[in-house]
Structures are given as structure tokens and as C-alpha cells.
Amino acid sequence: MSAPDPRRPDQDDEQTGLGPTRVRDLAAIAAVTAIVAWILVRYNYSDFPPLPLLAGVVLYVLAALEIVIAFVVRSRVESRDVGRARGQLHPLTAARVLALAKASAILGAIAVGVWLGLLAFLLGQHDLAAADHDRPGAIVGLIGGVLLVAAALWLEYCCRAPDDPSAVGDS
């Protein structure tokens, strides 16, 4: 029996490095955040100001920007127009866009959790006029968070090289 070669890790070991964002990780972040938000809202709702209808509109703006960036990156990657020449997508820019996508996916999951926790509390309050007023804003925010997560995951997908073996069959 020979000693393991340090240059070739066992196949059972997890891969190191930056991998695709997993939906289950984002769901876990959203679930934990929703529980914490529900607890905080339950004990502090009377101290909150009225929730404006468009409180989560910034999430829609971020999602729209990421979709636009995804179209640009996707067209450059598909046409193999990535490099250091003028007019090409610089590899460092692609890495920054990937970091933006990963951070936005986490932000979106946190936003989904916060809005979901708030909405869960509000749906249980049938006798408060303030809760009736705040429900539409919480729904708008929740949808914005979901859209941001979807846009971020798509942007991350668009950053993959066409011949990347992890681009097929990952979730």
C-alpha cells in the first residue's frame, strides 16, 4: 500500500475553489432569515413605521441590472469574445461579474427571508389595520427578492465558459 499522492486528492474529497451557487444553500439562508425576521417582527411590530408599497423596489432594479449584464456577458462568452484585447470582455471583469452574481444571490435569499418572515406574521394578523396596510408591500418585496435570486443565478450561469464541464447538469 503506497502513501497518498498529495498532488492528486482523493475523488471522495470535496472540490476546493469557487463552485456554482447551490439553490439549497440559498433556501437555507432564506429559511433561517425568515425565522429570525418573524421572531423580531412578532415582538417589535408595534414599533415599526408603516410599510410603503414600494419598499422592495430596489430589488427589482438590481434584478433588472443583472439581467442586462447577463445578456452582455452571455453574448461575449458564447462568441468567445473574452480576452484582454480592446472590445473584449476582460477575464478580470468576468470574475467581478461572477462575484456580483454570487453576492446578489445571497442578498436576494436574505431579502426573501426577511420579507417572508414579515409576511408570515402579517398573514396571521386579521384584526390589525396596520397589518392590512403592510401586506401588499411585503408581497412586493418578497417577489423582488425572488426575482433578484433568479437574476443572480442566471447571471452566474452566463459567466460559465461554454466548455466548462460543471455547466451541464448542475443545480
UniProtKB/TrEMBL annotation:
Q: Which residues cross the membrane?
A: 26-45, 51-73, 94-124, 136-155
Q: Which UniProt keywords apply?
A: Membrane, Transmembrane, Transmembrane helix
The keyword Transmembrane belongs to this UniProt entry's keyword annotation: yes
Q: Which Pfam families match?
A: DUF3180
Q: Which top-rank group of organisms is this from? A: Bacteria
Q: Which InterPro entries match?
A: DUF3180
Identify this protein by name.
DUF3180 domain-containing protein
